[in-house]
Design a protein that fits this description.
Elements: H1 15-40, H2 46-55, H3 58-68, H4 78-99, H5 104-111, H6 114-125, H7 132-149, H8 158-180, H9 186-206, H10 214-240, H11 243-246, H12 252-265, H13 271-295
Helix pairs in contact: 1-10, 1-12, 2-4, 2-9, 2-10, 3-9, 4-8, 4-9, 5-8, 5-12, 5-13, 6-8, 6-13, 7-13
């Protein structure tokens, strides 16, 4: 095997290929976590599942402390981390509740709208300037949500509406994370996410608390590890690979969701879910690539 670096990385395994692999892994982790939530929700309230999802991210934070030391707690944006945590908890609880009422593929398709909401908020809050192409992409993406839920044609359930609302709040969180990332490193952001979200998510969980069985605790532990690891693999994907190559791999979430939905919940997504999901995904990907192109320094 040809080796292309001192670290032993094969020559053919370019940064883009590694980034694509990390993005596919991210999709598998996140969608598998969603499937576990659906499974557990038969006997546990989604608010309680949300608490354990956050709390069981602690082992990942322990690894970060071991690797980087206590220096990862150094920040001058502690209030912003707190605001992010509050918004994240609200969005997570709404999404988990909506997930229990919505087919797996539909839920993940609608979740693609979060970057669209973030883009609108970036214009309103951060003063970013959109030209007509980006506005057209936004409208195209939001039209995709109408294709999926088809209001006035079929009954729009509570689940999809909760997921769309959670995506809107998550859009706010993405803008906050973007602001945090200007001065804080990813390990710092992930660490404060777990440290702040764990006690915050415990508050609503206490109102519906039922002690989980050992089997449920095992699934919850895996679920929590998957969720927190997914944040790290997503960051790694965009760090080692070009966004133009890496971002399209995120569509694999829909494929994986369709597979797991069929295998474990006997769900078959209709053609409207695929069409709408592709519209939303294409819109979000275009906006991400345009933003990267406009913020990339000239000559790089």
């Amino acid at each position: 095997m040809l080796i292309g670096s001192k670290s032993g990385t094969p020559v053919w395994l370019t940064g883009n290929l590694r980034g694509m692999g990390w993005m596919v892994l991210t999709g598998m982790l996140i969608v598998s976590m969603h499937a576990m939530i659906r499974h557990l929700a038969a006997d546990m309230h989604p608010l309680e599942i949300g608490f354990f999802r956050t709390a069981f991210g602690a082992p990942i934070v322990g690894i970060l402390f071991w690797k980087y030391g206590w220096g990862i707690l150094r920040t001058d944006q502690i209030k912003v981390h707190g605001i992010r945590a509050v918004g994240h908890v609200i969005a997570m609880m709404m999404f988990f509740t909506g997930l229990t009422m919505t087919p797996l593929t539909t839920a993940n398709a609608l979740a693609f709208t979060a970057p669209l909401f973030a883009a609108v908020l970036a214009v309103l809050i951060l003063g970013e300037v959109f030209r007509w192409r980006r506005w057209a992409a936004l409208l195209f993406g939001f039209a995709g949500t109408l294709v999926i839920i088809r209001p006035g044609i079929i009954d729009v359930g509570t689940g999809p509406l909760l997921i769309l609302a959670s995506s809107g709040i998550w859009g706010i969180v993405l803008v906050v994370i973007k602001s945090l990332g200007r001065r804080d490193a990813t390990p710092t952001i992930v660490t404060y996410m777990v440290l702040f979200m764990t006690p915050l998510s415990l508050i609503p969980a206490l109102f519906v608390w039922v002690w989980p069985t050992w089997e449920q605790l095992g699934i919850l532990l895996i679920l929590g590890l998957m969720g927190t690891t997914g944040h790290l693999t997503l960051t790694q994907s965009l760090r080692v690979g070009d966004a133009a190559v890496v971002m399209p791999m995120d569509f694999f979430k829909l494929v994986w969701a369709a597979m797991l939905g069929f295998l474990f919940f006997a769900e078959l997504p209709d053609i409207f879910t695929w069409i709408g999901g592709f519209m939303i995904f294409a819109s979000a990907t275009y906006l991400a690539l345009r933003e990267r192109a406009e913020t990339k320094p000239r000559g790089t």
